[in-house]
């Protein structure tokens, strides 16, 4: 930024130098010569031989002098003249006027419109013609430019000669140069200071951010990106990076917790399995069906933990595709409750199912079964002394609502949000030795989100909780059309 800013100022100064100092003489003489040519052209437009008025008007307008001569063989007689500039060589330097006139005539005869520059030799009262554009060597001396053209009018031939004095620009250039040196110095210093201030205000937050970003990449999540900058874009960048850092740190924490939780959950059943197996091998009489059952149960727990973790990673990783089918959700819930028959019989649980009529939905049956199964499992785990769990199905306005109600301790308000999180387990108030993994509700949540279903929980402390979700009911009419 510093380089560009200073570079731009230097470029501007260079342009000033080129146009004001180097090319000033050329530009001045270019403009003057063009003016002179235009004036000569205008004068040559006169057709009736009466040049007086036009010549005077042109001369006054452009501050130049002019004469018109009638050419008669080798003689030239003056027919009109406009003498505006008192020092013009055309009318003042008599000594050289004949030869000048001769030169201008020959030039005009050869080239049409002829231009010649002259240098006035001060004190000597003479002028000498300069050829080409070497006028730059004579910046300090007065020069003069003449333009001539031959015009035919009737039987007569006229020679129009126009003369313009060139002011010496050497002194002007010297003054401009002195000024430009000062201006250049002031501009360069100012530009350097302004560029430095701007660049440091703009880049210093970026430099510090890039340092922090490098620390972040190395795994330091306690980085802080500065949000104090004069530029709103930099502020925004700082805020976004801070947000990214905090999200990354959460992710990192979650990942560490996940590994810790999984290892812990895997270790517990493994310890049980190895402990019971050793006992059955080493201690006579311990090889009982009950002990074998413990091993079988723990193996099942291990396997459900692994499949839950896999399910969840598929669901949250976006690789899970729904296989939608139309099925009777009422039948599905009935079947699921049927699986708890043993528990109901042996441990005295009651799982009630109330519904008005059968309802059909279009959804991924396996996933919805998983949802219902997890919710009923939790309700059984956390229900109250009465060991009562109620599943209620209601249908209204095209929605099938399933509620799983328990009579347990309920969930405190501050935990209601967090229970859906992966690996969140309060664990303080189960009624049964809990077989959960802390993944159940997270799986429920992700399955229902994939279905675009509404779901939630309401809970009253000491009275119990109601977990619910809603799916669109598949109307019979559509059902019939499809089956036709
Ligand atoms: P798990 O049941 O394996 O601990 P979940 O993800 O199914 O894992 O549940 C997360 C947490 O939500 C549980 O640890 C528990 O604290 C709370 N919870 C879930 N269902 C209920 C319920 N019906 N009553 C009270 N608390 C519940």
Overview of this structure, please?
Helices cover 54% and strands 21% of the residues. Helix 2 packs antiparallel against helix 3 and helix 8 (289-317) runs parallel beside helix 13. It is an alpha+beta fold and 484 residues long. The strands form three sheets. Strands 2-1-6-5-3-4 form a six-stranded antiparallel sheet, with helices on both faces. Strand 3 and strand 4 (126-130) form a beta hairpin. It has helices at residues 2-22, 24-44, 52-62, 89-92, 94-111, 170-217, 232-282, 289-317, 329-338, 341-347, 365-382, 413-416, 440-451, 476-483, and strands at 65-72, 75-82, 113-121, 126-130, 143-153, 156-166, 324-328, 350-355, 360-364, 388-396, 399-406, 454-460, 464-472. The chain is rod-shaped and about 150 Å long. The chain contains 14 helices and 13 strands.
Question: Can you tell me the residue ranges where pLDDT is under 50 for at least 5 consecutive residues?
Answer: 429-433, 477-484
Strand order, main sheet: write it out: 2-1-6-5-3-4
- Strand residues, percent: 15-25%
- Roughly how many Å is the radius of gyration? 52 Å
Shape: rod-shaped
Q: What level of helicity do the residues show?
A: 40-55%
Number of helices: 14
Report the major sheet. 6 strands, antiparallel
Bound molecules: adenosine-5'-diphosphate
> Distance between termini?
73 Å
| Mean pLDDT figure | 84
Topology:
Blueprint lengths: L1 H21 L1 H21 L7 H11 L2 E8 L2 E8 L6 H4 L1 H18 L1 E9 L4 E5 L12 E11 L2 E11 L3 H48 L14 H51 L6 H29 L6 E5 H10 L2 H7 L2 E6 L4 E5 H18 L5 E9 L2 E8 L6 H4 L23 H12 L2 E7 L3 E9 L3 H8 L1
Parallel strand pairs: 8-10
Antiparallel strand pairs: 1-2, 1-6, 3-4, 3-5, 5-6, 7-9, 10-11, 11-13, 12-13
Helix pairs in contact: 1-2, 1-6, 2-3, 6-7, 7-8, 8-13, 9-11, 11-13
The structure holds adenosine-5'-diphosphate.
């Amino acid at each position: 930024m510093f380089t560009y800013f200073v570079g731009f100022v230097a470029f501007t100064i260079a342009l000033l130098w080129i146009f004001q100092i180097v090319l000033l003489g050329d530009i001045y003489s270019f403009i003057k010569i063009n003016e002179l040519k235009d004036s000569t052209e205008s004068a040559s437009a006169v057709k009736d031989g009466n040049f007086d008025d036009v010549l005077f008007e042109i001369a006054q307008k452009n501050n130049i002098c002019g004469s018109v001569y009638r050419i008669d063989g080798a003689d030239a007689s003056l027919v009109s003249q406009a003498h505006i500039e008192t020092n013009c060589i055309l009318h003042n330097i008599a000594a050289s006027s004949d030869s000048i006139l001769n030169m201008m005539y020959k030039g005009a005869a050869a080239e049409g419109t002829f231009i010649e520059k002259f240098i006035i030799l001060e004190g000597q009262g003479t002028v000498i013609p300069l050829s080409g554009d070497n006028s730059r060597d004579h910046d300090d001396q007065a020069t003069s430019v003449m333009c001539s053209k031959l015009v035919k009018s009737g039987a007569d031939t006229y020679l129009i000669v126009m003369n313009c004095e060139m002011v010496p620009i050497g002194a002007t250039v010297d003054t401009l140069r002195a000024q430009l040196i000062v201006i250049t110095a002031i501009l360069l210093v100012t530009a350097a200071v302004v560029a430095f201030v701007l660049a440091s205000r703009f880049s210093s937050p970026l430099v510090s951010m890039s340092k922090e970003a490098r620390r972040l990449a190395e795994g330091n999540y306690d980085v802080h990106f500065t949000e104090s900058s004069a530029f709103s874009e930099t502020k925004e960048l700082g805020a976004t990076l801070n947000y990214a850092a905090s999200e990354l740190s959460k992710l990192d924490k979650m990942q560490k917790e996940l590994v810790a939780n999984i290892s812990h959950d895997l270790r517990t059943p493994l310890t049980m399995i190895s402990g019971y197996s050793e006992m059955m091998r080493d201690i006579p009489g311990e090889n009982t069906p009950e002990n074998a059952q413990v091993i079988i149960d723990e193996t099942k727990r291990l396997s459900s933990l692994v499949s839950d973790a896999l399910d969840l990673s598929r669901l949250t990783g976006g690789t899970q595709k729904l296989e939608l089918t139309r099925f009777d959700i009422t039948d599905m819930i009935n079947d699921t409750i049927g699986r708890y028959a043993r528990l109901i019989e042996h441990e005295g649980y009651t799982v009630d199912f109330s519904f008005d009529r059968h309802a059909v939905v279009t959804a991924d049956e396996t996933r919805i079964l998983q949802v219902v199964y997890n919710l009923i499992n939790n309700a059984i785990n956390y229900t109250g002394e009465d060991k009562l769990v109620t599943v209620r199905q209601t249908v209204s306005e095209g929605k099938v609502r399933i509620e799983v109600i328990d009579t347990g301790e309920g969930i405190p308000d501050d935990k209601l949000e967090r229970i859906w999180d992966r690996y969140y387990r309060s664990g303080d108030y189960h009624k049964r030795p809990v077989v959960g993994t802390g993944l159940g509700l997270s799986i429920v949540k992700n399955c229902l989100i994939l279905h675009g279903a509404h779901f939630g929980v309401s809970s009253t402390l000491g009275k119990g909780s109601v977990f619910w979700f809603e799916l669109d009911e598949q109307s019979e009419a559509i059902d019939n059309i499809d089956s036709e």
